[in-house]
């Protein structure tokens, strides 16, 4: 069983330095006033239209992601550990992707098993031997971080395909500044609003030197996608066009956008569509979301795709266990952030241990995301554990397991007042001329008491993440 969760505000009843000013402010606040601010935040989010759809929900209704009005606060030094760690990690992961589609030196060195690449659904044979402009495969990464102690930060998983959530990070800050200007006056909070400018600058850089004024677009599957709000938000903030597949066409291996003034060449596509749906000539033949001929244009170097095709090979949960070794192999450095211990069910010893300890573990599908298809052993019923055991026995290679972590808690405004709830953190790492990360990220919070599942699709919410500059 996990140890007692680390309380980020007041472990052992003592207020930690990053929260001291906030604690003094909070004690002066009237409960009714805080409740009113909470309702105002909900109203503002509804007015802005920040909703998401839940796949599999037969009602088709869009939901508002719950927002907590109490910020999560990190010191400058705490943030430096996280920031340095995720930038180091992204650099190694990007190098790994280039290597597995190239010389495969890490496999020949025996650091990563060859079968984990060759038999992986996320490995795109079509990318072998191809190098994108600037050798950048991952332009945007979302690295999920959990905290289990005073200086104990670990990586839970890497999101390198189409990582989402940055719009909530930015809107959370905007709402907090409107509701609590007095609180910001008391704290030196590092800004996050330069994210979109940095993203646009990086995307333009990724076009290569041969393009003087690159045209950037955001490619969305459309308004029924669960993250459509974010797609529209980012396009608007960057001042670029939001397009769907039918808005683009390929001629002579060059991508064009249909406009009222005629075709306009496109140089960089920030795509929010999975690999399978990008080009029906190469991947799924039945895709109506992509652009015929797009992959050929990409391979010819006529357009940049961000993130690159085939990045899923590096955020696969079967590969996750090897990232610390990637950092040592490619960078010659020790990992700044640890991995969470992981059991791979294709290993006989690991599988036996997991099957014997299911009530104590969290089990996930190798290709799963969003909190779907997972078992949280300590919270599961006997029947749920029994049914999940049958799934494991039928297809063990499709699962990994991890200890049930004592995720840190932060003060959260709930119906009963202010109470601790479990949180994680997704910093957004950007790669262009350099690798950088805005100071903050998306804190996700499990609003149900005792719950460890923070995903919005599973009832979780979000809160603003503050990094103190002094």
From TrEMBL:
InterPro entries: ATP-dep_Glu-Cys_Ligase-2 (IPR051680), CP_ATPgrasp_2 (IPR025841), UCP005522 (IPR016450). Pfam families: CP_ATPgrasp_2 (PF14403). Signal peptide: none annotated. Residues 71-446 form the Circularly permuted ATP-grasp type domain. Gene3D superfamilies: 3.30.1490.270, 3.40.50.11290. This is Circularly permuted ATP-grasp type 2 domain-containing protein.
């Amino acid at each position: 069983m996990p140890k007692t969760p680390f309380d980020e505000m007041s472990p052992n009843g003592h207020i930690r330095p990053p929260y001291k000013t906030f604690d003094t402010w909070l004690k002066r606040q009237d409960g009714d006033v805080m409740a009113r601010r909470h309702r105002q935040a909900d109203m503002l989010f509804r007015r802005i239209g920040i909703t998401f759809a839940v796949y599999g929900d037969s009602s088709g209704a869009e939901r508002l992601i719950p927002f907590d009005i109490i910020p999560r606060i990190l010191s400058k030094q705490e943030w430096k550990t996280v920031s340095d760690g995720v930038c180091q990690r992204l650099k190694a992961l990007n190098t790994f992707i280039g290597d597995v589609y190239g010389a495969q030196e890490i496999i020949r060195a025996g650091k990563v098993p060859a079968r984990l690449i060759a038999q992986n659904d996320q490995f795109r044979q079509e990318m072998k031997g191809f190098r994108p402009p600037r050798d950048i495969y991952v332009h945007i990464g979302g690295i999920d971080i959990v905290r289990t102690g005073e200086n104990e930060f670990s990586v839970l998983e890497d999101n390198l395909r189409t990582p989402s959530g940055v719009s909530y990070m930015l809107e959370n800050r905007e709402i907090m500044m409107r509701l609590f200007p007095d609180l910001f006056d008391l704290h030196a909070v590092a800004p996050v609003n330069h994210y979109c400018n940095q993203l646009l600058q990086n995307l333009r850089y990724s076009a290569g030197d041969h393009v003087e004024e690159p045209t950037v677009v955001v490619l969305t599957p459309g308004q029924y996608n669960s993250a459509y709000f974010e797609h529209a938000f980012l396009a608007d903030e960057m001042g670029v066009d939001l397009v769907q597949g039918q808005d683009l066409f390929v001629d002579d291996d060059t991508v064009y956008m249909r406009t009222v003034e005629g075709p306009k060449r496109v140089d960089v596509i920030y795509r929010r569509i999975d690999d399978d749906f990008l080009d029906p000539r190469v991947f799924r033949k039945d895709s109506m979301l992509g652009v015929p001929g797009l992959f050929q244009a990409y391979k010819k170097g006529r357009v940049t795709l961000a993130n690159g095709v085939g990045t899923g090979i590096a955020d696969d949960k079967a590969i996750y266990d090897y990232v610390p070794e990637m950092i040592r192999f490619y960078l010659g450095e020790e990992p700044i952030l640890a991995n969470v211990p992981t059991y791979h069910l294709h290993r006989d010893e690991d599988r036996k241990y997991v099957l014997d300890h299911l009530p104590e573990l969290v089990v996930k599908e190798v290709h799963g995301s969003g909190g779907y298809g997972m078992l949280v052993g300590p919270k599961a019923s006997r029947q749920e554990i029994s049914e999940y055991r049958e799934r494991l026995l039928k297809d063990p290679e499709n699962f990994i397991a991890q200890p049930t972590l004592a995720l840190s808690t932060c003060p959260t405004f709930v119906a009963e007042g202010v109470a601790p709830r479990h949180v994680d953190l997704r910093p957004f790492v950007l790669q262009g001329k350099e690798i950088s990360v805005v100071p903050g990220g998306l804190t996700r919070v499990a609003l149900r008491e005792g719950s460890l599942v923070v995903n919005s699709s599973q009832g979780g919410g979000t809160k603003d993440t503050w990094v103190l500059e002094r």
